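Technical annex, item 7. During the second reporting period the consortium partners agreed on a shared format for inverse folding records so that results from different sites could be compared directly. Each record opens with the tokenized structure and is followed by the designed sequence. A conforming record, contributed by the partner at site C, is shown below for reference.
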């Protein structure tokens, strides 16, 4: 694929931050045996990666604003363009030495996500997409899976935990979905979940209670791979509502019907 200058900027920033996360991830296993545990170390790793992303993206596009997990909103001179950044999606996985986490960078223009990069530095899997130009994994074009029936599908979800989210609602939804699908998975990293829908590894994904930095990049990638991505009401307010459902057209329609009826 021929990458645009914009995607090259995003990829370079992601790879630079990824090198730092790989180094820090290598230390986590050693810290698991300490009494204090690796929690503070992982928080510092998150902040270090975010600092690198902020510096690199600011250098390349000085006027753009930011919405970042740690720093929050930073207004730029260019009010139309905003970087939406999660330096470490899958923090709990990272904390426990599980190699499923990612750097997520999106460009949102006038409220619409137009470009996305999701990078898992452990597997060296780089997902990129720009609106109207398709989605790619390490230069291989992506398409969502073509399965037509929920009974054949492996579906991914997010699971609310420890006081976060509506557990009772989730249990109803999960029970309804389990009766109709071939399998249910949970990875712990929403950006990767959406990227894996784009790659056809998951047939669909749903989750509630997310932030825009969890969703923006993966949303572009899944859509550019031919997926339908909406909020759980079937609308286009994914970033505002923090809920998402993604899949091909038929599976998306079938799954949203199951969840609505739960």
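Designed sequence (site C submission):
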């Amino acid at each position: 694929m021929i990458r645009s200058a914009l995607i090259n900027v995003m990829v370079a920033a992601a790879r630079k931050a990824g090198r730092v996360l790989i180094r820090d991830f290598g230390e986590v296993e050693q810290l698991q045996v300490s009494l204090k545990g690796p929690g503070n170390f992982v928080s510092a790793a998150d902040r270090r990666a975010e600092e690198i992303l902020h510096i690199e993206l600011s250098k390349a596009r000085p006027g753009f604003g930011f919405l970042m997990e740690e720093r929050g909103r930073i207004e730029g001179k260019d009010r139309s363009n905003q970087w939406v950044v999660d330096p470490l999606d899958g923090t709990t996985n990272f904390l426990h030495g599980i190699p499923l986490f990612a750097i997520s960078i999106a460009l949102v223009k006038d409220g619409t996500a137009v470009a996305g990069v999701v990078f898992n530095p452990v597997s060296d899997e780089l997902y990129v997409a720009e609106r109207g130009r398709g989605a790619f994994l390490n230069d291989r074009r992506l398409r969502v899976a073509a399965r037509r029936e929920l009974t054949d599908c492996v579906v991914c979800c997010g699971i609310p935990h420890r006081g976060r989210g509506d557990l009772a609602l989730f249990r109803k939804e999960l029970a309804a979905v389990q009766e109709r699908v071939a399998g249910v998975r949970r990875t712990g990293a929403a950006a990767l979940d959406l990227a894996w829908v784009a790659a056809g590894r998951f047939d669909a994904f749903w989750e509630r209670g997310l932030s825009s930095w969890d969703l923006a990049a993966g949303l572009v990638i899944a859509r550019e791979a031919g997926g339908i991505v909406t909020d759980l009401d079937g609308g286009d307010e994914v970033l505002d509502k923090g809920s998402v459902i993604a899949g091909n057209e038929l599976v998306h329609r079938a799954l949203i019907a199951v969840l609505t009826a739960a």
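Helices lie at 5-31, 39-60, 91-95, 167-178, 190-198, 212-224, 238-241, 249-261. The chain has two domains: 5-141, 150-261. All partners now use this format for quarterly exchanges.
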